[in-house]
Design brief:
154 residues, alpha+beta, three-stranded antiparallel β-sheet, two-stranded antiparallel ribbon, 4 helices, globular, binds zinc ion
Length: 154
């Protein structure tokens, strides 16, 4: 869990090249984040994600949503939910320059809600699944996007 007191603190979680694309109009401060926070651009086409791995700095990713996913059931790479319709699709983000990386996940990043639903249904604790989810998000940010999760060099 981490807390972002102001919009500037939230923007600092993003890489400088992403900051101008981030829409902050729908959030209120202080923003207390459990696991992660995700929100869509009100104009569509983008979804934003801020998370922190254990011991890491708050890290933001600005995704392009690339239109609707294929209308067949697909599995989210992060929460492993199988979602019918267009719920799972390709989100892409800039690595550097024109290089982009993508991941097939819940296009609204509602992974947390999906894991909570499963936990409520089965009576299991949601924490182990949630920790794996944040680990997978961190691996994508660090391996695919080359973001330093310690916050260094941002
Ligand atoms: Zn998901």
């Amino acid at each position: 869990m981490f807390k972002l007191d102001t919009a500037d603190d939230l923007l600092d979680a993003f890489r400088p090249k992403d900051r101008k694309t981030v829409d902050l109009t729908t959030l209120t401060y202080p923003l207390v984040v459990k696991d992660y926070v995700a929100w869509p651009h009100p104009g569509g086409g983008k979804v934003f994600l801020v998370f922190a791995t254990p011991g890491g700095a708050p890290t933001g990713i600005a995704f392009d949503t690339n239109g609707a996913g294929a209308s067949v059931p697909a599995m989210c790479s992060w929460c492993h939910s199988s979602v019918a319709g267009t719920g799972v699709g390709l989100l892409t983000a800039t690595v550097n320059g024109n290089k982009r990386a993508g991941v097939h996940v819940c296009t609204d990043l509602s992974c947390r809600e999906k894991l909570e639903e499963v936990a409520n249904r089965t009576g299991a604790s949601v924490r182990p699944a949630m920790e794996k989810l944040v680990t997978r998000i961190g691996q994508f940010a660090s391996d695919a996007l080359k973001i330093d999760l310690s916050g260094a060099g941002r």
